[in-house]
Amino acid sequence: MTASAVPQDRCDLLIVGGGINGCGIARDAAGRGLKVVVCEQDDLAAHTSSASTKLIHGGLRYLEYYEFGLVRKALRERELLLAAAPHIMWPLRFVMPHDSHLRPAWLIRLGLFLYDHLARRQRLPASTGVDLQRHPAGAALDPRFVRGFEYSDGWVDDARLVVLNALDARERGASVLTQTRCESVRRDSGEWLATLRTGDGRPCELRARIVVNATGPWASRFLRNRSPVASDNGVRLVRGSHIVVPALFDHQYAYIFQGPDGRITFAIPFEQDYTLIGTTDVEHADDPDLPARIGEDEVDYLCRMINRYFRAHIAPADVVWRYSGVRPLLNDRSPDAPSVTRDYMLELDTDGAPLLSVFGGKLTTYRKLAEEVVDRLAPLLGNKRAAWTALAPLPGGDLPGGSFELFLAQAGDQWPWLPEALRERLARAYGTRMRVLLEGARGVRDLGAEVLPGLYEREIGYLRREEWARTAEDILWRRSKLGLGQAPGAAGRLDEWLAARPAG
Question: Which domains does the chain have, with CATH numbers?
Fold first, then answer.
């Protein structure tokens, strides 16, 4: 389905916003039999939802702010999500060196014990103290760090998580329209009349029984400028920035550091050959329509934090990729950005046709947020179907025994001609949907031209046909991370290739 055509003129739910919350709500609602349309003015996950630290976690540091309910909810969701898509999500062990300015070791162990037990834990091992002179993660650290702690959380490919929710929504009957802007919504005869503008500039109208405002950083502006609904709630824009450098260590542990200023920095193994470092928490006063850009002061800060802890030092010149996202946090009027809650609020306006707005939220709790939204809205539409997403795998996540290793071994048997690195990348990205991508292929030449190193014509066609990809940025940085390591000008060459071959 292209973004230039609206496939229907009436729906139960019009969801404005194609980030993780919008696509999660669409998936849940479509699975309960509701007629759903999602419109996204750019690409899926084009903004906040592809610019996270890429963790599925309870939020250890939120315990400092006594947000026990949020941490418990996130920990419960962590278990469910790790089971739903084990090809794009997997457990990760974090090491925290004990620094001189931190709380006493016994108090940190108490906090980790609480983190282990706030919610039932089935998949992940418990926390423990570690001797960094013997632990594999200790070798990369400055030798002054001799003891630390180890605990569990999870990793996720955030942009692919959004796409998988959109895929599942579409396969359950939803219409997902990218490059389609919602110009306005107004109440008319007990419904909403929405004016949309498609990617080619054509306006069209759509009637909806309910509108969901899942526009993230634009949530307040959408209400103010494009709807008749007023709200006292709002979002506080906080920029989170990250840098990627060549790998600082050769093991699969991640690190968490709390600096003397109290801020948290992660160093995470990333795409085999790199280390992902983040994040900053900076008030973002800019227009959300403007791209979020990491400041040089943020780059310097992250480099200083790494150099405080690691033997190997880095400088801004070592950064091979940098990205920023604007987090739309619920404005709870906290005194500074790190202390702003990562919880969410759902506001339902029923002064006529209903409109529900989502304020705040975090990646880990998106599924629960979506479930709560549909639980509130479905009865208004006469729909009594039960919630269903808690135990349902995402597309490609139905791996044999829930084991990626077993699936990868089977992939080696089924496609022995695939180069090993390519086979593992495709398995990680697509899971069991790899079979759809490779259907009928008997050798590498059946993949078509190698348009860029590691990227073949067949995969590009799949991404355009099945996953709404339109540009080089969509393909190289959101559907994959193949942009890393490419020669200068690669994105431009891919865009030229795409322009010369219109999607079918």
Answer: 10-48+159-234+341-391 (3.50.50.60), 91-156+237-328 (3.30.9.10), 400-499 (1.10.8.870)
